[in-house]
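Students often ask why we bother encoding 3D structure as a string. The short answer is that it lets us treat folding as translation between two languages. Here is a chain of 145 residues written in the first language.
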Amino acid sequence: MTTRLQAGWLGVPILTLLLIIAGLSAAAQTQLLSDYQWRGELQAQASPDSIWRRFMQAKVSQVQFSQAEPSLCQGFCALADTQWQGTPIQYEQGGQVITYQWHSYQSADKGIYHRLCATINRQEYYCWWWHERRLHSQAWVSSSD
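And here it is in the second language, the structure alphabet:
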């Protein structure tokens, strides 16, 4: 009888090990799918007919600082702020639309800063920052309400 009882206890660790492996496998597959989707988005942006590429050529490569609106906030306002200091600007091409905001800010030390942030879904933005008319930085920024 003890042999039969011991055999049952031997199956519990094996079953636990299998459940752990299955959980790790599911987590890895979810991460792989997420990475694959992200890679697809990056490739779509890099394609020659991408609206992002056309937007960058039209608005970033040939930036016009005089068109920036003064920021009403100390520094720049939060991207999720519903007061985009006026009407959001839209760039439309090929049936696709990018909404963007273009602001300037003069700091206390008289340095002039500019920020251009563009979005398709108002949750993820691509932003460019200039200081004294020199591109300082650019990055994806996520916004939440």
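Translate back mentally: The first strand starts at residue 69 and ends at 70. Keep this in mind for the problem set.
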